[in-house]
Amino acid sequence: MIAVTGLVKKHGPDTILKGISLRVQKGEVHAVIGPSGGGKSTFLRCINGLEQFQGGTVQVGEHVLTPATDPRRDARLLEAVRRKTGFVFQPFNLFPHLTVIENVIEAPVHVLRMSREQAIERARTLLDRVGLAAKQDAYPRSLSGGQQQRVAIARALVMEPESILFDEPTSALDPIMAGEILSLMADLAKDGQTMIVVTHSMSFARNVAGQVHVFADGLDVECGPPSRVFEEPQHPTTQAFLTKTAKD
Ligand SMILES: Nc1ncnc2c1ncn2[C@@H]1O[C@H](COP(=O)(O)OP(=O)(O)OP(=O)(O)O)[C@@H](O)[C@H]1O
Ligand SMILES: [Mg+2]
Predict the structure, then answer these.
(1) First to last CA, the chain
(2) What is the mean pLDDT of residues 239-246?
(3) Which of 55, 169, 208, 240 has the fewest Cβ atoms within 10 Å of its own Cβ atom?
(4) Structural domains of the chain sorted by starting position, each given as residue range(s) with its CATH number in brackets
C-alpha cells in the first residue's frame, strides 16, 4: 500500500533523511518512535507529498513520487496521493468559523464533489463513531483539545483514505484526553485501518502497532515487531531512547 525506498531529504547542507525504506501493507499499523529531530515528521510529510525530496521513491498505491515530482507540474499526482493518505497532526487545524459538522463535510463536498446531504450523513456516522454526535453544531473553540482532535480524526476518516498518517496526535493533550484519543486509534487499528503513527506513546507502539521503527538522525536504526524492539533492542540508540522514555 505504501512503499518508501531509499528516501533522502535535504534542507540546504543538512541531510535530514539518509535513505529510509519502509513498506506498509493493507491493515498494518506502523509506529515510528525516536528522539526529537530524528526526521519523523519530515518522513510523514514526504509520504503525503507535502515535502519534495532529493533521493529515492515514495509509492502510494499505484502513484509514485520521485525527486523529479514538481508541486506545480504534478499537482494532480500529489492530489491523488493525498486522497489516499489522510493526515492527522498535533495542532488540530480546524476551521474556527465552521461548526464541527461543517469542518467534517468541507473536503467531501469541495474535493470529492459529494452532495451536501450525503456528506452530512457520512459525517454524522463518523462523529458518532468518535463520540461527538452531540457536538455536531458546536464551534471548535467550545471544544476541549481532545474533542477537537476527534473532529480532526473524523475529518480524515470522512475521505475514506487507504491509510492515515498520524504525527504525534496526542502531544498537545493532557494524559486523560491523550488516552482517549489513543484508544480511539486502537479501535481504528482493530477495524483494519492502515496507519503510520509517529508517537511518544510507548504503550501505543508496544500494544497496538505491528511494527515499530526507531528513527534517529535521519535513519531507521531499528525496526521489527514491538515485542522484539522493546524487549531486546539491538541498537545502542534504541537502548538509550527506551531507557530515557522509561524515566519520563
Ligand atoms: N524547513 C526546514 N529547514 C531546515 N531544517 C529543517 C526543516 N524542517 C525540519 N528541519 C530539520 O530536520 C530535522 C528533522 O526534523 P523533524 O521535524 O522531521 O524531526 P522529528 O523527528 O519529527 O522531531 P520531533 O520529535 O521533535 O517532532 C531537524 O533537525 C530539523 O531541524
Ligand atoms: Mg515531529
Answers:
(1) 35
(2) 90
(3) 240
(4) 2-93+163-247 (3.40.50.300)
Burial class (CB in 10 A: 0-12, 13-18, 19+), 156: buried
Say what the pTM is: 0.93
The verdict on the CB of residue 42 being under 6 Å from ligand 1 is yes
Distance CA 65, CA 45 (A): 12
Q: Whose CA is nearest to atom 8 of ligand 1?
A: 42
Contact criterion met (CB below 8 Å) for 12 and 193:
no
pLDDT at position 18 is 98
Residue nearest to atom 17 of ligand 1 (CA): 41
pLDDT band at residue 92 under the 50/70/90 scheme: confident
Angle between helix axes 116-129 and 145-157 (nearest 10 degrees) is: 130
CA distance 100 to 150: 10
**Helix axis angle, 175-190 relative to 145-157, nearest 10°?**
20
* Best CA proximity match to 40, nearest among 194, 230, 169: 169
Asked if 81 contacts 49 with a C-beta cutoff of 8 angstroms, the reply is: yes
What grid cell was written down for 239? 537502548
Over range 231-246, report the average pLDDT: 92
Q: What is the pLDDT of residues 162-175, one digit of tens each?
A: 999 999 999 888 88
Atom index in ligand 1 nearest the CA of residue 39 equals 18
CB 21 within 8 A of CB 220: yes
d(CA 17, CA 67): 13
